[in-house]
Amino acid sequence: MSEPSKLLSQMNARSREVFRRVVEGYLDTGEPVGSRTLTRALTEKVSAATIRNVMQDLEFLGLLDSPHVSAGRIPTQLGLRMFVDGLLEVRELDSDDREKLDATAGRSASDVGGLLDEIGSALSGVTRGASLVLTPKHEAPLKHIDFVSLAPDRALVVIVFADGHVENRVFTPPPGMTPSAMREAANFINALTEGRTLSELRRVMEQEVARRRREIDSLAADLIAAGIAVWDKPDTRHERLIVRGRANLLDEAAEEELDRIRSLFDDLERKRDIAEFLELTEDGDGVRIFIGSENKLFSLSGSSLVVSPYMNADRKIIGAVGVIGPTRLNYGRIVPIVDYTAQLVGKLITDRSQR
């Protein structure tokens, strides 16, 4: 049993209700909740002094904190975790929220990336937070690959998929790369390409390069390794992170929090630690909630993350959607929105792949 669960099981009915009312009041207003406010809200009629004693006990347990002398209490990170795990009442998805998300999904974006971009914007608008959408790699069979020299220290790899999808990425080729070595590398790869996905091609190509390295110009072999590794690194599982609604989070931040939140978005836009983003969701299906320092990517900003994976037709996790907000998020409303969005994205991607 986790520490929050143990604490919750040890609390009596009065302590539970005081704690729940403090957290709900804080999540609703963002302000500390005082004993006088609670005397009017509790089902059991008790004095303000009795409530203050209960709040002091909860503070001693590390569940509440008093930001100012003689002020009310707010929940700590441990308190929020206990509330989310044991006392949170998740609402049904609001019909207006569902309609807005469904309307976005019904638009005919030209590709999956465009569709997910629109859904990210809609999710941000519905939740009034910042949305994250981690897109899957394109895993259709390949048709053709080319290398194009842009400068002595820059080259472009162009990948054409059998379904007509085209992707380009700039990378740094090995020093001294010649046009003939580029042609040789492309010819070698294309002889192995047809009918294989990028990840399948990479495995076959590594075996062939190892077996036939003497037959291949050393620069061409290096380019083959570099060009495909840049595109399909084993530890790079997703091609794009879509972040929408940055202004929503900044608008609600207190002045002292602005720098921390800006730093978070800078990290996200540089895709730092994004490989860990999906791993956060893989311990089980459904929505997961990370509060403050429970996730190092969000710890410095003091933000919360509500995230859920989405799956393809084979029930394989291929991406994730999430909402970032202050720790006083309306979790009961946000959780069903994120859950529904993840299911919606999974269905849309599956439907597109079966056309």
From TrEMBL:
Keywords, alphabetical: Repressor, Stress response, Transcription, Transcription regulation
Record carries keyword Transcription regulation: yes
Keyword Transmembrane: no
Pfam families: HrcA
Heat-inducible transcription repressor HrcA C-terminal domain ranges (all copies): 115-335
GO molecular function: DNA binding
UniProt GO BP: negative regulation of DNA-templated transcription
Annotated function: Negative regulator of class I heat shock genes (grpE-dnaK-dnaJ and groELS operons). Prevents heat-shock induction of these operons.
Record-stated family: Belongs to the HrcA family.
UniProt cross-references to NCBIfam families, sorted A to Z: hrcA
Protein name: Heat-inducible transcription repressor HrcA
Organismal lineage: Bacteria, Pseudomonadati, Pseudomonadota, Alphaproteobacteria, Rhodobacterales
